[in-house]
Amino acid sequence: MNADIGSSRVSGTVRAPPSKSYTHRAILAAGYGDGTTRIERPLVSADTRATARAVEAFGGRVEGIADDSERIEVEGFGHPETPADVVDCANSGTTMRLVTATAALAEGLTVLTGDGSLRSRPHGPLLAAVEDLGGRAESTRANGQAPLVVGGPVDGGRVSMPGDVSSQFVTALLMAGARSEAGIEIDLETELKSAPYVEITRELLADFGVETENGGKGFAVAGGQAYDAGGEYRVPGDFSSISYLLAAGALAADDELTVEGARPSAQGDSAIVEILDRMGAEIAWERDAGTISIARSPLSGVEIDVGDTPDLLPTLAVLGAAADGETRLVNAEHVRYKETDRVSAMADELEAMGASVTEREDSLTIHGEDSALQGARVDGRGDHRIVMALAIAGLVADGTTTVAGAEHVDVSFPDFFAMLADAGADVSLD
């Protein structure tokens, strides 16, 4: 499916979708529980459906998971059963990494696979950690990539692993470690990238009654803990998705655009508010009310370290293309290992729209003073975040921008294009 976006303005009030990161973790946390948990306002998307299917494969039950669900109910499996069939994680790297550790608690063997994109993503450090804990964890192609064969049961223990590949490895071990006998201690050999995502995990685990420790150079979770959220958990708004709405406001809102559902949480991507403020945006965050108001403003380029906020890189690249001066996105090498190489993808597609960029292995520099965005046909690369970022660029490009692969927004923000249209954007899908 293609999305055609014309140069246009936005205004009014929009509501942020629920957080994908919290929804994944809440569904699995409820799965680790022994009773039934009602999850209020979840994000129902292709990725979170994959996690729900995995929970059912391990012996749990998920009810009410539909596109317009305001709540779903998860009956926990407590201790995972060995799945009766292969677990298909589709395009969801979060699902595969989190449930790799779940599979290590089961007595038999679990086979995990996914689509072509997911089968190209690295899992080696997590597989090594499972084996160090006494489990079985293999890549069928011996390259650290899915399909994976994982089994246990692991009882817990101490592992050492790099922190600069994926914070999801830490999340997976913390979540499973609480249900192991002895718990798990994780020593990090390198700096932890995307560290706020581990804090999201720890915040959610606390809401489910699970205690964890951050020792500075590693994390620990005691074994034998029970998952119990008191029967109900409410998912907060998603700041990764909010970033596109705020970018639309900063670039194309002659009158204010107000985003609801933006209450403070552990999400690192809430840094988008401070970044826009540094760039000169007219922005105000009423934290108690959970609303952010923003209007079109002249922006200036800045340097931004995306080590902890990799999902913001596509949004920031678009903002840089419309700003005066240079915008430098640094510490970005790990952003190449997402659904696609997002550094290269944004460089190529923004250049196709008339932007001037310089790509390095660990950085992307956008030369705003040499950029004049023009409507063009661009490729979303099968990546929801690339699709949405390019659509925002289309709001301020001269002419019509056609984004191929628009359907991939279903991964994290199914209502994205409808919301843009409701705010006044010139959007059509075909």
From TrEMBL:
One GO term of the biological process aspect: chorismate biosynthetic process
Keyword Transferase on entry: yes
Cellular component, GO, one term: cytoplasm
Pfam families in the cross-refs: EPSP_synthase (PF00275)
Pathways involved: Metabolic intermediate biosynthesis; chorismate biosynthesis; chorismate from D-erythrose 4-phosphate and phosphoenolpyruvate: step 6/7
Enzyme class: transferase
Domain of life of the source: Archaea
Reactions catalysed according to its record: 3-phosphoshikimate + phosphoenolpyruvate = 5-O-(1-carboxyvinyl)-3-phosphoshikimate + phosphate
Enolpyruvate transferase domain span: 7-419
Main subcellular location: cytoplasm
Positions contributing to 3-phosphoshikimate binding: 20-21, 25, 166-168, 194, 311, 338
EC numbers on record: 2.5.1.19
UniProt keyword Transferase present: yes
Transmembrane spans: none
Active site residues per record: 311 (proton acceptor)
InterPro entries xrefs: Enolpyruvate_Tfrase_dom (IPR001986), Enolpyruvate_Tfrase_sf (IPR036968), EPSP_synthase (IPR006264), EPSP_synthase_CS (IPR023193), RNA3'P_cycl/enolpyr_Trfase_a/b (IPR013792)
Subcellular location: Cytoplasm
Subunit composition and interactions: Monomer.
HAMAP family named in the record: EPSP_synth
Function: Catalyzes the transfer of the enolpyruvyl moiety of phosphoenolpyruvate (PEP) to the 5-hydroxyl of shikimate-3-phosphate (S3P) to produce enolpyruvyl shikimate-3-phosphate and inorganic phosphate.
Protein known as: 3-phosphoshikimate 1-carboxyvinyltransferase
Source organism per UniProt: Halococcus morrhuae DSM 1307
